[in-house]
Design brief:
The chain is mainly alpha-helical and about 180 residues long. The protein has two domains: about 5-40, Single Sheet (Rubrerythrin, domain 2), CATH 2.20.28; about 50-170, Up-down Bundle (Ferritin), CATH 1.20.1260.10. It has helices at about 50-75, 80-105, 125-150, 155-170, and strands at about 5-10, 15-20, 35. It binds fe (ii) ion (FE2) (2 copies). One fe (ii) ion (FE2) binds near residues 67, 94 and 167.
Length: about 180
């Protein structure tokens, strides 16, 4: 066991106290190699970014906000305890992603709870909610793959590459 110390996630920037890097960032779900001791972490944001990266980040923000709302609704309205927990966990991860994007963009966080879209309402059954989850996560993987390929800024490219892996993990939960 390593020493109890401060780690920071390279994807979401959140701090974590522990004796080693967890296999996934407890906040955003980033893979282990992204959670590094504080002295190995340096803020990568704050530099000006290209319009192409900005466009991809804005599109990603919409997906993340929509997913946050959908998962929140499913968690809130499910009577099934497994679904309550599962969709709460997903909601928290997607909210972290939205917050990370806002940080990179230097924008304000949209008022997520007030964005009650019809398409983000919970479906009737767990099966339907899992199918909708799968659809959203598969779409996110595709969109982020493209964004990683097209973003000229190294930090944004890296961010989308890692985000893609997290959403791919989420797909596994629907199997
Ligand atoms: Fe993270
Ligand atoms: Fe996400």
């Amino acid at each position: 066991m390593g020493k109890y110390q401060l780690f920071v996630c390279k994807v979401c920037g959140d701090p974590y106290l522990g004796t080693g890097a967890p296999s996934r960032c407890p906040f955003c779900g980033a893979h282990e190699e992204n959670v590094v001791p504080m002295d190995e972490w340096g803020p990568v944001w704050g530099k000006p970014i290209s319009d192409i990266s900005k466009k991809h980040l804005e599109e990603a923000l919409q997906l993340e906000v929509g997913a946050t709302n959908f998962y929140r609704n499913v968690s809130k309205f499910s009577k099934d305890v497994w679904a309550q927990k599962m969709f709460k966990a997903l909601m928290k991860a997607e909210k972290e992603h939205a917050e990370a994007i806002v940080k990179i963009l230097g924008a304000d966080m949209p008022n997520i709870e007030e964005m009650e879209l019809e398409e983000d309402k919970a479906r009737e059954t767990i099966e339907e909610n899992l199918a909708e989850t799968r659809k959203r996560e598969e779409n996110a993987v595709e969109v982020y793959k493209m964004a990683a390929a097209e973003s000229p800024d190294e930090a944004v490219k890296y961010f989308f590459g890692e985000l893609m892996k997290i959403e791919a993990d989420h797909i596994l939960l629907t199997e």
